[in-house]
Amino acid sequence: MQGRIWLFSAALACLVAAQAVAQDNGEYLPKAGDFRIGFSTQGGSGVTYTDIEDVKTTDISFGGSYFFSSNFSFDIGLSYGESKSGGNTAKATVWGVGASLYFGGGGTSNFVPFISAQYQSFDLDVAGNNFNPTGFRVGIGGHLFLSQNTSLDIAISYANVRGGGNEADGFGFGIGFSIWFR
């Protein structure tokens, strides 16, 4: 599975590189009707792989936004992850819905900051036991546009998850890219 994920990541990177050389008119602030597909490493979209203290984790996520105005979007996301430690495996599917508020006035700066909030629902399978916690994530970040249709994305977020008598929370940092359809 990891080989397919990395091959898919390389194909997406080529698509982003092709978009980066597209014609650029210098207007970066989103407009009503714009649509964004994101691909990043934490709290948004992307592929990650970690190997910490013999716990190997692979995660792939995608997200998108539809803009109702130049400063407000409706966001959706879907993620799937697997962790392995020794003979034990944990799998997680997460979906989320939320909104983002964008800042910036003139539309010609290639950095567009935002704040976001998202409700998340989890389907966890840990060693054959299923759990379905829910939670929320709030974040602050920005899109650094390489062209009008391509951006590098960076965000810091806080998440709180509850369910099955358990609660977990923490901060995350994510970096990735988005393709914009205008």
Task: Provide a brief overview of the structure.
The protein is mainly beta and 182 residues long.
Can you give a write-up of this model?
The chain has 182 residues and is mainly β. The protein has one helix and ten strands; from the N terminus they run H-E-E-E-E-E-E-E-E-E-E. It has one helix spanning 2-20, and strands at residues 35-40, 46-52, 55-69, 72-85, 88-102, 111-126, 129-131, 134-147, 150-163, 166-181. The chain has an eight-stranded antiparallel β-barrel with strand order 1-3-4-5-6-8-9-10. A hairpin with a 2-residue loop joins strand 2 and strand 3. The chain is elongated.
Count of helices? 1
Q: Helix coverage percent of residues?
A: 10-25%
- Order of adjacent strands in the largest pleated sheet: 1-3-4-5-6-8-9-10
Give the averaged pLDDT, no decimals: 76
Largest sheet descriptor: 8 strands, antiparallel, barrel
Low-confidence stretches: 14-24, 41-45
- Morphology: elongated
> Secondary-structure element order, as H and E?
HEEEEEEEEEE
Helices and strands, with pairings:
Elements: H1 2-20, E1 35-40, E2 46-52, E3 55-69, E4 72-85, E5 88-102, E6 111-126, E7 129-131, E8 134-147, E9 150-163, E10 166-181
